Structures are given as C-alpha cells and as structure tokens.
Amino acid sequence: MHRKVPKFVETHLDEIIERWKQLMKEDHGDRFFQIMPDEVVEKTSHEFAGLIVSNLTEDGQMYESKLHDFSERIVRLGWSITLVMKAIENFSDTVYEMLWEAEVINDSNVAEYFEVLNGWIRPLREEVVEAYSNTWERTVSLQKIALQELSASLIPVVDKVSVMPLVGTIDTERAKLIMENLLEGVVRHRSEVVLLDITGVPVVDTMVAHHIIQAADAVRLVGARCMLVGIRPEIAQTIVALGIDLNEFTTTSTLQRGMQEALALTNRQIVEVDE
Amino acid sequence: MAYRSSVDIHTEWDIVAARQLGRNEAKKIGFGTVDQARITTAISELARNIYLYAGTGKIEIERLNEKGIFGIAIIASDEGPGIADVRKVMEDGFSTSGGLGAGMPGVKRLMDDFRIDTEKGKGTTITAIKWLR
Any stretches that span the bilayer, and where are they (chain B) (predicted)? Predict the structure, then answer.
C-alpha cells in the first residue's frame, strides 16, 4: 500500500504536473506562470515530485536533508509563502484526485491513503514555513545590527568639540544607545561642547524631545554642554506647538552655525589666513 | 463613505508605520511641509499614547471633504483603561509615565479640531482634524 503511491507518482509524473499547472492557473490566473520562468517551474515541480517519491523510498535522514535543501532553495526563489503553500496543497490535491480516478483509492482504503498523503505533505509544509521564518528572522536581526551600526556615533571634530549626527527614527532602544554613546564619547574625547544634529530626524515628538532633554542633562552632569542643531523650520513650529521647553539649550538651524557658536564658547574662532 | 485607511498599533515600530501612512495621506491631500510635520507629529503622539497606556489599538486616517474644504482626520482608538481625568491630561506638564506631559495638549494645538471620547475601563477614542486652507 505505501509503495503503491510513490510508484504511482513516479509513473504519472508528467500528467500530475500538467494538471497541477492547470490548477495553479485557475487559482492565480496566468500571472503565476508569468512571474516564474517555464524551466524553473518545470524543474522545481519535478524536483518536488521526486522529493515526495524519495520520502517513501529512502531512509528518514536522507529525506530530511533533501527536504531541507529543497525548502531553502524555494525560499531563495523569492516567491511569497502563500503561493508556495497553495502550490503544495494543489499538488497533493492533484495526486489525490488522480489516485481516485485510477481506482488505487476506493471507499474502503481511503482513510489509510489519507494518512499516507498527509505523512508526505505535513513535514514538507512545516519545513517550508520554518525555512521562510528563519530567513525573515535572519533578515530582521541583520537589519537591526545594521541600524545599530549607523546609530549615534560621536565624532570629535576639533579639540573640545564633538558632533553627534542623528539620522532616522528614534525609538526607546536607540534613545538609550544615544545616551550611552554620548556620555562615553564626551568623557573619552574630553569634549566641552557637544552638538546634537537632528537634521536627519523626521519627526520630533514629545518622546524624542524628552530623550534629547535627558541626554543634555546627563551631558551637563559630566561637565560638558549640549547644543541642539539642525532644527528645520517645520520642526521648530511643531516644537513650539507642542509646548516643549528647550530654553536651556543653545539651538541653531544648521550645524555650521552651531560650530561657530561652539568655538565661541570655547574661546576660539575660525580666521582666514593671509597668504 | 469617505476614504479611510488604518494601522494597528502593537509595537513601537507600528508608530512609525502609522506616521508614514499619515504623512503620505497628508501629502496626497495637498498639505504643505509644515502641516505635514504637524500631522505626523500628532499621529506620533496619539500612537505612542496607545502603545504606552493601552498596549494595542489602531490609528485610522480619513480624508475629509466638507463643502469643498478638504481635510484629514486622525482617529486613534483603543480598548485600554480609559482616561480617568480628561481635564488633567489636557493640562501642560501632566504625565503619569514620567514624560514631558506635552503630548495631549500639544496634539490639540497642532490640529484644528480635537475630541476625546473615553470611558473608564472601556477605552478611548480620540479624533483630531486638520483642515486644508
């Protein structure tokens, strides 16, 4: 009984694939086959069928490693998971239907066959879902690291003056990182003035302002001064509307103006040299 | 039925998604950069309040057209604990979470119309509207 099915799949493979393709077309229209080149569909479906056959002919370990390779490759093709799930379902439906038509299955043994078919499809589905979720998790964690790398580094510009350019959305996690890097950098570079540049921050709401104010307070505690630079006109207006009090800050519209102020605070200035 | 779209708020990153949606809608309606910043900041405040105090909820953005005057409505709704004292949260500097306490009165100042419907234990719906002039 268990052997009959893989044998059946093996011998009727071309017909199964033909009908499976038909089914996919009915579900998704021609779009499905437009987005996938013919030879990829052909190759993948044959491989998939081969995999199903090998499930019952080869030993467990061999099958598992094959299954793993296969699902990894499916993920790399970049199809949506819903589509792949549908493809698997349609494939098993097709096999089931054809087994009925060939009268391999009848009313008396249908339960047993159902068990066999399920035994193939379930691990495949689980493996594909797992491969997909692993890929997503990996992407997310890599992006998190990438984001952290571009988060908040303190750059010593001239003696006693450092700049921290902030780019992108500030969430709680980044706010913490900004604070840490700021304090550590101020102490390490012996900065007297730190310029926080918010040109690249899209929205300054009360939470962002709160974090900036806290960071500035902490900087004051380690003996330096914090200046807020890069305040765009629309940000200035929203800060005023929100009623956020930034009076304790020196603020400027651009980093350039901020630099001049910072140099003035440390009793220096930029002069042109006569040749 | 007016055009409406929404973002569910579950995590801190959904706040960014809500903001992005609001900014795009505001741009489509024809708001300038200053009003776009006002609208996105208001959304940011409301979404953050949902995240902080109710845990989950949603932000809906609706395009308005009243007798030829266009506008945008932000509807922030949750089924959280509700607001115990509405008068108090509208005071500047009142906060239960150690924040600046400028969020709610700030949103009111950023937008043109502002309404709070809240019931203790049932949840809160805040509607804020900005008209295009």
Answer: none
Contact B45 A235 (CB under 8 A): no
The number of folded domains in chain A is 2
Q: Position A187: which residue type?
A: V
Q: At what angle do helices B33-49 and B12-29 cross, to 10 degrees?
A: 150
Residue B130's pLDDT band (boundaries 50, 70, 90)? Answer: very high
The sheet carrying B69-78 orders its strands as: B4-9, B57-66, B69-78, B123-131, B113-119
Distance from CA of residue A265 to its chain's centroid?
A: 44
Task: Determine the average pLDDT of the residues in A47-76.
Answer: 73
A51 confidence band (pLDDT: 50, 70, 90)? confident
Q: What is this structure's pTM? A: 0.73
Query: Cβ-count burial of A26 within 10 angstroms (0-12 exposed, 13-18 middle, 19+ buried)?
Result: exposed
Q: What is the pLDDT of residue A55?
A: 65
Do A179 and A261 sit in the same domain of this protein?
yes
Per domain, the residue ranges of chain B are 4-131
The side-by-side arrangement of strands in the sheet containing A193-200 is A155-158, A161-167, A193-200, A225-229, A250-252
Chain B residues with CB inside 8 Å of A237's CB? 34, 37-38
Which chain A residues are closer than 8 Å to B13 by Cβ? 171
* Residue B1 Cα, gap to closest chain A Cα (Å): 31
More confident of the two residues A148 and A162: A162
Residue A78, chain B, CB below 8 Å: the answer is no
Cα–Cα separations (whole angstroms), residue B33 to A131, A221, A244: 43, 37, 20
Question: If you average pLDDT over every residue of chain B, what do you get?
Answer: 91
Using a CB-CB distance cutoff of 8 angstroms, which residues of chain A are in contact with residue B38?
234, 237-238, 241
- A165 and A129 co-located in one domain: no
Tokens of A170: 């500030």
- Backbone φ and ψ of A115, nearest 5°: -60, -45
Q: Which CATH architecture has domain B4-131?
A: 2-Layer Sandwich (3.30)
Identify the residue with better confidence: A68 or A192.
A192
Structural domain span for residue A92: 4-148
As a whole number of Å, the end-to-end CA separation of chain B is 23
**Contact between B57 and B78 (Cβ < 8 Å):** yes
